[in-house]
Write a structure and sequence with these properties.
233 residues, alpha+beta, Jelly Rolls, three-stranded antiparallel sheet, 12 strands, Cupin_8
Amino acid sequence: LPGAVPEEPRCTVERADASLTYSLFLQRFAFSRPVILGGLTDNSAFRALCTREKLLAAFGPLPVRLSTANTYSYRKVDVPFQEYVELLLKPQDPARLGSDTLYFFGDNNFTEWGPLFQHYVPPPFRIPGTSSAYSFGIAGSGSGVPFHWHGPGFSEVIFGRKRWFLYPPDQTPHFHPNETTLAWLQHTYPTLPPAQRPLECTLRPGEVLYFPDRWWHATLNLDTSVFISTFLG
């Protein structure tokens, strides 16, 4: 489906290709700044399993846990996956608060979704002393998670386009915790002087973003999107 917001061509996040070695990743990015990785893995087989038709056929009647799209996402709602796709997976209403916006990311049952995840090829890099956990999501255009932070991780776009906004740990962004990313983009972002703007970029299918520990980040799905994150804890 067409996106709810236009794509911003500017990208201020550094990019790296398949020539990036693990030692250079640790030296230049792992503990200091985000990077967009391209060409390190091939997830075409996983992407083929993530079409609307195949996901509905495999998981339609199974319950999924939806989270509120605000910074402190405490509210959870369980619905059948088919109900989410057919009734709730739609463009973001700019007037809705984050606490009233539900969408599917994380909180997956690995017993039921495990056969799908085993086809995913994660990025080859790890942070020493961490283990990885997947978070799978599907969201409508204009939806996203407002600013928050946690441990380091990777996030790959499978379908659609996903815009990211990032601030370092010592630069807390100005936002209301119950405001959606779309509302923040429309109301707050245009008022920011250049020095206060976040690092930002739009990711396309097959691209992976790495974000270090405790970096603030917000996301905005420009299209109906499928994505998977690998959190390092």
